[in-house]
Structures are given as structure tokens and as C-alpha cells.
Design brief:
Length: 366
């Protein structure tokens, strides 16, 4: 399939994502000239909607290990024998101190992550409430949490305490999910996301790449995320953990990683795309190209069970690309529109008058 890059750029600027056929064509792409067009287009669309601003996020692994769930990539599952740390919930004070240190390091959205099917016990909910209040008061950062398959009553309560964003990954495509997650269903993941959307939260949901999925699976998840209208998509690349069923996989090249970022930018033109875990080992020196590939976000600091690179290195990476840290708050973003319901001339994102088309800007063109 021959792709019309000028038309894709034009649609992306209007918030209209590419079609399934176009997305699948990107998966098959290996011609160098075509790849250059892909990255130039993805960068132009990113620049139109997000300029040079980076959404920086960081996390606290606030309750780790001994998880009853069975997600085959995860070293915190009690089903596998791994070296992941196991501890009960941290105090609110500890979490707030971690948040303050992250803020000093440049993080502007901070997520409290707890292992388990869902967080419903009173002591843990109280820690979360106190931590959200403290983080908001002492740093002003956007507050987020990743707490499993949460239901409306607990989410309402946490939102009232100051939780602004909810993170919950789909992990992978619906048709590949049973290969990866054996203890709960895709529909349960979707229900959690829909509940948070209904509550008006900023919802962050994406997945992990390099788990044996095909390009068709990657396209499938991107389209599902567009349908769910999530605000932010974390892109993780598998860092295979010894002792897990996926511990042997080494699937991705740096070019694959950059193609995945570009694919997601063009399916979801208006949304935040955050490059997270596994970027160091899968992208190596090519990390510097993630913004050119269409990303506008970066997780800083350590991941849940693996170390990230030094924050100073990430600041250097952003500076090298002329990017600046975006301040909070992060409101729900304009919907990325599927091509079949696009309206010619509509400024979907309310972004008329945004900067020049970077396809013609020597500062950003490759
Ligand atoms: S991904 Fe989350 S739910 Fe799944 S095993 Fe790991 S901690 Fe548990």
C-alpha cells in the first residue's frame, strides 16, 4: 500500500488518526526512504499538538511483589520465582518524600503503583488518600496511581482525595492478551479504563511491546486505545525478567521501537505518548530519536523492578532535542478521531493557528 504522507500529516494535524490499513502498512515498512517519511510525519504531528513540551512522569513502587495475578511478563507475580522485591505498603510519608525527590529531578506527574488484583483494603486506601493530599500540597505535581482492576466506589473516593490520573495498561492486543495475562480478562481491563473515563479522570493506558506479538497485534491495541479515548499511552519495551515465562525473549530492534512510537503517534495524533520501561536496553543510543519518532513524554527515574538511567542523562536527552518539561495539570486531551468519521476542515483538537508545519521546518525536519 502506497501511503500519502502529505495527507496523513494534514489529517494528523486535524486530530484524525490513520486507518487500520495504513497502520498495518507501517508495520511492514522497511524501505529507508519510506521510514524517513514516517518519522518526519510523526514528528510533524507531535509538534503540531504538543510543540516541544515533554510530559515527564515518575513512579513509586509503593507495594511490591507477592501478587496473586499471573501476568507472564511480571516479576512481581507470586506464580514465578524471581528476584523482585516484596514488601507491604509504604507509608504516606515515604511516598511523599519520593514524590518530592522526583519533583526535584524534573518529574511533573507522579504515580503510586501497588501490586495486586485491586486495591480495596482500608489501610491501603488511607495511605493513598494521605499521599495524594501531601503530593498535591507539597509539590503541585499531577497525581496518578496504578492500582489494578479498580471499581467506581474506590476510584471516586481517591479522586475526591486528589487523584487526578489513573494508569491501567491493556498490556497488549485483545487477541493476544490470553497469551500474556492468565488471571483476568481483557474485558476487566477495559471496564477499569471506562470507569475512570466516566469519572472524568485523565486516563493513562498502553502496554508492553516485544512480548511475542505481531505488528497486527500492535495495530489492534492502538485502535482499541483510540476507541477508549485514553489520554496518555505509556509505551514500554519488554525488559525480560529472569524467572518469568517471557524471561528469554529478545524481540525488538531499536528501529522496531521507533516504528512502534511513530505508529502510535499517527493512530493517536492528539494524545500523550510516554516512553517508559525498557527503553534503555531496547533503544540504546537511539533513545535520542524518540521525540523525532513522535513521543512527547518520558518516564524518569527507576521503573517498578528495574533501574532507569540517571535523570541527568534524560535531561541531556531532552535538551539535545530542544524539548522542555511540561507543567501540570494534565487535563483530558482532545479525542483522536478515526478516519471514517472525520470531517473535512474541522479543527478537532481546537488547535487552529498552531505552529508552522514542521515538515517544512529545517529546525525539525530530518
Ligand atoms: S502486572 Fe500487576 S497485576 Fe499483573 S502480576 Fe504484575 S503486579 Fe500483579
Amino acid at each position: 500500500m502506497q501511503l500519502d504522507w502529505t495527507d496523513i500529516t494534514d489529517r494528523g494535524r486535524r486530530g484524525v488518526g490513520i486507518s487500520e490499513a495504513e497502520a498495518l502498512a507501517i508495520g511492514n515498512m522497511c524501505d529507508e526512504a519510506e521510514l524517513t517519511e514516517l518519522f518526519t510525519t510523526a514528528e510533524a504531528v507531535r509538534f503540531h499538538h504538543h510543540g516541544t513540551q515533554v510530559n515527564t512522569c515518575g513512579i513509586s513502587n509503593a507495594k511490591s511483589g507477592r501478587c496473586p495475578e499471573k501476568c507472564n511478563f511480571c516479576s512481581q507475580s507470586a506464580h514465578f520465582s524471581t528476584a523482585a522485591p516484596a514488601y507491604t505498603v509504604k507509608s504516606a510519608e515515604t511516598i511523599i518524600d519520593e514524590a518530592k525527590a522526583a519533583f526535584e529531578g524534573g518529574v511533573r506527574e507522579f504515580s503510586i503503583v501497588m501490586a495486586g488484583k485491586a486495591i480495596t483494603r482500608e489501610p491501603e486506601l488511607q495511605v493513598l488518600e494521605d499521599a495524594f493530599k501531601g503530593i498535591r500540597a507539597q509539590t503541585g505535581m499531577q497525581t496518578c496511581a496504578s492500582l489494578g482492576l479498580m471499581k467506581r466506589p474506590e476510584l471516586e473516593r481517591l479522586k475526591a482525595a486528589g487523584m487526578q490520573s489513573m494508569h491501567h495498561n491493556l498490556e497488549t492486543a485483545r487477541s493476544f492478551h490470553p497469551n500474556i495475562v492468565e488471571s483476568h480478562t481483557y474485558d476487566e481491563e477495559v471496564e477499569t479504563i471506562r470507569t475512570a473515563k466516566e469519572l472524568g479522570m485523565y486516563v493513562c493506558s498502553g502496554g508492553i511491546f516485544g512480548m511475542g506479538e505481531s505488528w497486527a497485534h500492535r495495530v489492534e491495541m492502538a485502535l482499541e486505545l483510540r476507541e477508549l479515548d485514553v489520554d496518555s499511552v505509556p509505551i514500554n519495551f519488554l525488559n525480560p525478567r529472569p524467572g518469568t515465562p517471557l524471561g528469554h525473549l529478545r524481540e525488538l530492534s531499536p528501529l522496531d521501537c521507533l516504528k512502534i512510537i511513530a505508529l502510535y503517534r499517527l493512530v493517536l495524533p492528539t494524545k500523550d505518548l510516554i516512553v517508559c520501561g525498557g527503553r534503555e536496553m531496547n533503544l540504546g543510543d537511539r533513545q535520542v530519536d524518540i521525540f523525532k519518532a513522535g513521543a512527547n513524554g518520558l518516564m524518569l527515574g527507576n521503573y517498578l523492578t528495574t533501574a532507569g538511567q540517571a535523570m541527568a542523562q534524560d535531561h541531556g536527552l531532552m535538551a539535545a532535542e530542544g524539548m522542555q518539561i511540561r507543567p501540570p495539570p494534565h487535563k483530558p486531551l482532545p479525542r483522536s478521531v478515526p478516519p471514517e468519521i472525520r470531517t473535512e476542515g474541522t479543527d478537532v483538537g481546537g488547535l487552529a493557528g498552531k505552529p508552522v508545519d514542521p515538515r517544512t521546518s529545517p529546525a525539525l525536519a530530518k
